[in-house]
Amino acid sequence: MARPLKPETAFAARLIEARLPIERDEFAQLLGVPKTTLGNWERGRAFPPEDMLRAIRQQTGVSLDWLITGEGEMRPSQELALPVAAPPQRHYYNRALMHALIKLYIEESRAMRIGLPAEQLADKVLEMYDHSIEEVNALMEQGAGEKVA
């Protein structure tokens, strides 16, 4: 369990309150930001950009008015809440799978004496990753398991 942070601003304290009971590590992963970035927001040493405020709203259900100013209800009833534009979609990835695919593709390229520019290599690895995720999700659906992002 991560050690408790000492918020230096009222916003930081509300952000911590908003994410609980989710652990900091898990919440940072949900938002697609490094744990240190979230830690800086929760200490009050930095302020999240607009797209992250929307993502926080989406993940926690808190009112942005409450989060930013402390005014109003923390989690207003859904009937009264104004529709909020969805944050830009972030792509979460399985780090171990991505690492294995990069390593595999580099080894295969070297064995076949193929040299690709970094951009093409990245595109190929992402194609392999997307294909792998599709296959895993198809298998999970067959077994009624949880999908992989």
Automatic annotation (TrEMBL):
One of the record's GO molecular function terms: DNA binding
PROSITE patterns with a match to the protein in the record: HTH_CROC1
Gene3D superfamilies registered for this protein in UniProt: lambda repressor-like DNA-binding domains
SMART domains tied to this protein: HTH_XRE
GO biological process: negative regulation of DNA-templated transcription
InterPro entries the UniProt entry points to: Cro/C1-type_HTH, Lambda_DNA-bd_dom_sf, Phage_CI_N
Record SUPFAM superfamilies: lambda repressor-like DNA-binding domains
Protein name according to UniProt: Uncharacterized protein
